[in-house]
Amino acid sequence: MYSVIAAPARERHVSTVRRHAAACPHAWCLAEDDQHYSLLIVGELAGNAAVHGRDTMTLGLAPAAPHRTLCIQVTDYSGPSRITPRASLDDLDKEFGRGLGIVCSLAQSVDSTTTVNTNQVRAIHRIEPLRAT
Length: 133
Description:
- By secondary structure, the chain is of the alpha+beta class.
- About 35% of the residues lie in helices and about 30% in strands.
- The chain has a 5-stranded antiparallel beta sheet, with helices on one face.
- The chain starts with a strand and ends in a 7-residue tail after the last strand.
């Protein structure tokens, strides 16, 4: 199971990405808490891509049942970067670092990669075992 959606990296498209993200964990029968927390992570990462990213963003979701994790990956690419100084863990008390704090508190791990053409953030969220359908 894997799901991807692409959208313009603009704030008005974050709700579309969130709706897609809400449908997938529900269809995969994730526990309600896991659906809720994964949607919070998606919202923060997609919101960051819309505010600070490039022209287009993609959201990838992939549950790994044997590892009991959900990989949430947001990539923005193409065009010039709109990046402002990135928040670090030291900045969590500042306004622009709160979203990263939410993601870090909910995810088992978070990593990011920036190249000339892309910004990618991947969060691994631990989930309950998948329920039978």
